[in-house]
Amino acid sequence: MRRQEPEPVDWVATARRARKTGDDVVGAGGLNPKAAVLYLSLIPQFIRPDAGHVVAQGFLLGGVQLTVSMAVNLAIILAAGTIAVFLGRRPGWLRAQRWVMGSVLGLIAVRLATDRGRPLPV
Fold first, then answer.
1. Which residues form a coiled coil (predicted)?
2. Is-contact 47 57, C-beta < 8 A?
């Protein structure tokens, strides 16, 4: 059996798809009311009225959290892209990764199905 050569990657089309996906994610995240509820319920706990302007403290804490979240998400995106390219160029690694992850998820499913745990105390 002859080994197939991988098809060349169209980097321009790939970049366009990534940009569209990124735009979709940002749009969906901006329209998510759960984020607003999270900020309105958590940030007030860390505001000290005696330390100055309350609204400014809220915006500062929210800005710090958004900056940290964006940095973490960017690191995850870059890592995922690098791993995808690595696996795309090495079909053997891709098969091994799928087999290992399938086995892990199967074992978790068996564990959950056979769990005879006690209910939490009230």
1. none
2. yes
